[in-house]
UniProtKB/TrEMBL annotation:
Pfam families: PDZ_2, Trypsin_2. The keyword Chloroplast does not apply. The lineage of its organism: Bacteria, Bacillati, Actinomycetota, Actinomycetes, Micromonosporales. Keywords: Hydrolase, Membrane, Protease, Transmembrane, Transmembrane helix. Residues 9-23 have a biased composition (Pro residues). Gene3D superfamilies: 2.30.42.10, 2.40.10.120. It comes from the Bacteria. This is Trypsin-like peptidase domain-containing protein. Belongs to the peptidase S1C family. Residues 316-378 form the PDZ domain. InterPro entries: PDZ, PDZ_sf, Peptidase_S1_PA, Peptidase_S1C. Residues 1-64, 342-361 are annotated as: Disordered. PANTHER family: SERINE PROTEASE FAMILY S1C HTRA-RELATED, SERINE PROTEASE HTRA2, MITOCHONDRIAL.
Length: 417
C-alpha cells in the first residue's frame, strides 16, 4: 500500500512497439530529447463534451481592422451644440419676461412686484437715519452765500450758524430736500456762540429729534447733513473723534468760544449750520468749523477735522433767542489771560468780588488747572468749557495759588447783557 507520493508513471513503450490505448506517451517518446522519462505529470487530452451552456466567446483577431470613433465624436459635438442653443433661447425668454431685454419698449429694472431697495432699509441703519433726518434739513440761501440749517419746530423755527446769516436781508430763503422753497426771516443771532435762529414762512414742517450732547462718547458713529459747496442734500458719515475740544474761532472782531464735538465726517463750506446726528437720528451738534491746511478760506477743504457746537448749548441759546430775543452767556465772573502763558492752566487776571469765582474764594493771580475734571491748557479752555453749562450749574474747580493746589465749588451765572 502507498499514498502515492513516490508513485512512478508507466514507462514509455519501447521503440517500434504500439502505444497501448490510454497511454500518456506518444509513439516516439523515447526518441524525444526534451522528455523527462521520470516526470510525475502527464498530459492527457480529454475528448470534448457538450455541457449544454453557451458557446465560448470567439477570440478577436488582433489583425482585424478596428472600429472608428469619429461618428461617436460627431454625435457628442452635435448634441452639445443643440443643448447650448436651447439654453440660450430659454435664457433669453426668461430675461424678456423678467424685464431686462433691450429695445422695442421693453421694461428696464425691477418689475412692479419688487419694492425699491431703499424701502427695505432698517430704520436704525445709516440709510434709515438719513431718510428720517433729511426732510428736516434745509439749505439756507443768503445774498452771496449758502449754508445749512435744521427745523426745530413744526411752525418753522430753524437753527443755523450765526456766520451763515451774517449780512442777511429780506431776500433770505430756504430750500427743502423735496425741492420746495420758502422765504425766511432772521429771528435773532448770538455771534459769540455762533448760533442763530431763522423763521421759515411755512407750517406743518417736520422737526428733528433732539439728542443729548453730554451722553456721547469718542468712537460713536455720526452723520453730518448739509449743502457742502452748494451740493444740497449731502450726507457724510464718521465718528466722534473727541469731545469738549476747546475752540476759538471768528473773524471781523468777533471771537467765538465753545467746547466742540470733533468728528472726522467730511464737512466743507456750506455744511455750516447743518445737524450732526447720532446713530438714532438725534441731533447732537451743529456743524460749524473745520480745520484745513489751505492758505485761505476759499481754499479750505475737508481733512477729517470738523467741529460742531454741542446741541445742549445750541438749544439753550436758541430758546433764549426765541423767548427773549437775545441769548444769555454763562460766565464764571473772572477775566483770564489767553495765550503766551508759561505754565499750563487758566490764570485769572482779575476776579469780580461778587461774581461766581469771587464767591467761591478765587482771587486774581490764581491759576485754574481743572474745571469739572477737564484739564485746562490756557484761558481759552476755561471760557469755552464754562459756556457749555447752563447758568446756575455748580461745578468743581481745581486751582493753584503759589505752590499750593486747592479746590472750590463755583456756581456759574448768566451775564448781565
Amino acid at each position: 500500500m502507498t499514498d502515492g507520493w513516490n508513485a512512478r508513471p508507466a514507462p514509455p513503450p519501447a521503440p517500434g512497439q504500439p502505444v497501448p490505448p490510454g497511454s500518456p506517451w506518444w509513439s516516439d517518446a523515447l526518441a524525444d530529447p526534451w522528455r523527462d522519462p521520470w516526470a510525475p505529470t502527464a498530459v492527457v487530452l480529454q475528448p470534448a463534451r457538450s455541457t449544454g451552456g453557451p458557446p465560448p466567446e470567439p477570440v478577436a483577431d488582433p489583425d482585424a481592422p478596428r472600429r472608428s470613433y469619429t461618428p461617436i465624436l460627431l454625435i457628442c459635438l452635435i448634441t452639445a451644440l443643440l443643448a447650448g442653443g436651447l439654453g440660450g433661447t430659454l435664457g433669453y425668454v426668461f430675461a424678456v419676461r423678467g424685464g431686462v431685454a433691450t429695445g422695442g419698449g421693453s421694461q428696464l429694472g425691477a418689475t412692479a412686484q419688487d419694492p425699491p431697495a431703499a424701502a427695505n432699509r432698517a430704520p436704525d441703519s445709516l440709510a434709515g437715519v438719513a431718510g428720517k433726518v433729511l426732510p428736516s434739513v434745509v439749505t439756507v440761501r443768503v445774498t452771496g452765500a449758502i449754508g445749512s440749517g435744521f427745523v426745530v419746530s413744526a411752525d418753522g423755527y430753524v437753527i443755523t450758524n450765526d456766520h451763515v446769516v451774517e449780512g442777511a436781508d429780506d431776500t433770505m430763503s430756504v430750500s427743502f430736500s423735496d425741492g420746495s422753497t420758502a422765504p425766511a426771516k432772521l429771528v435773532g443771532r448770538d455771534p459769540q456762540s455762533d448760533v442763530a435762529v431763522i423763521k421759515v414762512a411755512k407750517n406743518g414742517l417736520t422737526p428733528v429729534a433732539m439728542g443729548d450732547s453730554e451722553s456721547i462718547a469718542v468712537g460713536d458713529p455720526v452723520l453730518a447733513f448739509g449743502s457742502p459747496l452748494a451740493l444740497v442734500n449731502t450726507v457724510t458719515a464718521g465718528i466722534v473723534s473727541a469731545v469738549d475740544r476747546p475752540i476759538e474761532a471768528g473773524d471781523a472782531g468777533t471771537t467765538r468760544y465753545y467746547a466742540a464735538i470733533q468728528t472726522d465726517a467730511a464737512v466743507n463750506q456750506g455744511n455750516s449750520g447743518g445737524p450732526l446726528v447720532n446713530a438714532a437720528g438725534q441731533v447732537i451738534g451743529v456743524n460749524s468749523v473745520i480745520r484745513s491746511v489751505g492758505g485761505s478760506e476759499t481754499e479750505a477743504g475737508n481733512i477729517g477735522l470738523a467741529f460742531a457746537i454741542p446741541i445742549n448749548q445750541a438749544e439753550r441759546v436758541a430758546i433764549d433767542i426765541i423767548d427773549r430775543g437775545k441769548a444769555r452767556r454763562t460766565v464764571i465772573g473772572a477775566e483770564v489771560a489767553t495765550g503766551g502763558t508759561s505754565t499750563s492752566g487758566a490764570r485769572l487776571r482779575s476776579v469780580e468780588p461778587s461774581g461766581p469765582a469771587g464767591a467761591a474764594g478765587l482771587k486774581a493771580g490764581d491759576t485754574v488747572t481743572k474745571l469739572d475734571g477737564h484739564l485746562l491748557e490756557d484761558g481759552t479752555d476755561l471760557i469755552a468749557l464754562v459756556r457749555k453749562y447752563d447758568p446756575g450749574t455748580t461745578i468743581p474747580v481745581e486751582y493753584r495759588r503759589g505752590t499750593k493746589t486747592q479746590t472750590a465749588s463755583v456756581t456759574l451765572a448768566a451775564d448781565s447783557n
